């Protein structure tokens, strides 16, 4: 095998892996119990290619979840640029995060393994950094008082991934976000 052939195969394998993860993201969001053959079909690959990359269903679930969180944690600047209000950007960012996590809850035991906990733990730092950037923008805008810890805000906003994934849940989420931002307008009280 020549170096050129090997490089071409590696690029094709990388494209296939991304296609599989993207298809899994879409299909798991619709139905956490979707078959892997449906994921392979949506990705445009054979079952053998899917299983070569992801030998077990749990491997694919973790890869899709990790990909979603990595993609989201790098979008803080993009979301801020899209909105004239830092607060609106922050709300959109958290609503996207909550949608990813609601899907995660529907995936069951696959995301309660030791490997899954490593993926979740690895996401904490980048997620905290993204929230810190959004908090700084909101502080500069005056919609959040200075001094709030991004980790505290993540914990506070965690209600978003517990609301129902329907219109009523979305309305409840909007009310709760408004209540959170109302509280964040005041400086944190010392302990």
Automatic annotation (TrEMBL):
Cited SUPFAM superfamilies: Homeodomain-like, Tetracyclin repressor-like, C-terminal domain
GO molecular-function term, one example from the UniProt record: DNA-binding transcription factor activity
DNA-binding region per Swiss-Prot/TrEMBL record: 35-54
Record bears the keyword Transcription: yes
Residues annotated as domain HTH tetR-type: 14-72
Keywords attached to this entry: DNA-binding, Transcription, Transcription regulation
Record keyword Ligase present: no
Pfam families the UniProt entry points to: TetR_C_43 (PF21597), TetR_N (PF00440)
Protein name from the UniProt record: TetR/AcrR family transcriptional regulator
Organism lineage string: Bacteria, Bacillati, Actinomycetota, Actinomycetes, Pseudonocardiales
């Amino acid at each position: 095998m020549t170096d050129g052939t090997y490089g071409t195969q590696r690029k094709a394998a990388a494209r296939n892996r991304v296609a599989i993860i993207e298809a899994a993201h879409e299909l798991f969001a619709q139905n956490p119990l979707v078959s892997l053959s449906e994921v392979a079909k949506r990705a445009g690959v054979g079952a053998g290619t899917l299983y070569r990359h992801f030998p077990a269903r749990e491997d694919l679930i973790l890869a899709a979840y990790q990909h979603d969180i990595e993609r989201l944690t790098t979008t803080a600047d993009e979301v801020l640029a899209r909105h004239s209000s830092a607060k609106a950007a922050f709300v959109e960012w958290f609503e996207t995060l909550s949608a990813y996590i609601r899907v995660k809850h529907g995936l069951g035991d696959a995301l309660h393994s030791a490997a899954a906990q490593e993926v979740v733990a690895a996401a904490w730092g980048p997620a905290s950094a993204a929230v810190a950037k959004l908090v700084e923008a909101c502080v500069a805008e005056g919609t959040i008082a200075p001094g709030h810890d991004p980790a505290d805000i993540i914990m506070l906003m965690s209600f978003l991934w517990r609301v129902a994934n329907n219109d009523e849940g979305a309305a409840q989420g909007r009310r709760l976000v408004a209540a959170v931002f109302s509280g964040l307008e005041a400086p944190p009280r010392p302990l």
